[in-house]
Amino acid sequence: MDDQPAPEHQRPDGVTDETVEAVGKVSAALDHVEDARGHLYAFHRLMGSAESTFEEAEALVREAGHDELADALDRDVLGQNPLPGMWSFQMVEAFDDGFYARTKELHQRILDELVDGQRHVFEAEMKELRRTRGREGHEARPADVEGHPEYDG
For labeling, which of 25, 58, 128, 149 is most exposed (least CB within 10 Å)? Predict the structure, then answer.
């Protein structure tokens, strides 16, 4: 191993510092979108759990003899859309099929057109600037770490 980043993380010939920085910023923005998507999925799961728990609560409120309040839970909470016209699964689908899909597609186009499809060039160069060659824990890539044959090329 020559203590260099893997070829897929090396800057293609002719790519400027400005382009690497710009592509890195687009990738960082996509990371934020990915985080937001994760929160949206968490919201979806929490809303499903809330619906089930409200259903259990409605039954317990009714069993405790509070029919009017149980009716209100049934009428005003159970089965309601958290946003107009949408349950949380529909929010997830709308996000995934709309903004998320467009963002992922444009990110890939930017990678393909500007850095030959290579990912994390900016981060790989940052790692090269900060690591100490030959120092344990500062290896260029996993194949340089003893005991990781799955990464050997």
Answer: 149
Three-state secondary-structure class, residue 149:
helix
Domain boundaries, the chain: 16-142
Please give the Cα distance from 142 to 10 (Å, whole number): 15
Residue 76 φ then ψ, to 5°: -105, -10
* Residue 32 β-bridge partners: none
DSSP characters for 45-86? HHHHHHHHHHHHHHHHHHHTT-HHHHHHHHHHTTT--SBTTB
The DSSP code for 114 is H
Print pLDDT tens along the chain (153 aa): 578 888 888 899 999 999 999 999 999 999 999 999 999 999 999 999 999 999 999 999 999 999 999 999 999 999 999 999 999 999 999 999 999 999 999 999 999 999 999 999 999 889 988 988 888 888 888 876 666 554 544
Q: Which two tokens stand for residue 86?
A: 């949408």
The answer to whether 93 and 40 have CB atoms below 8 angstroms apart is no
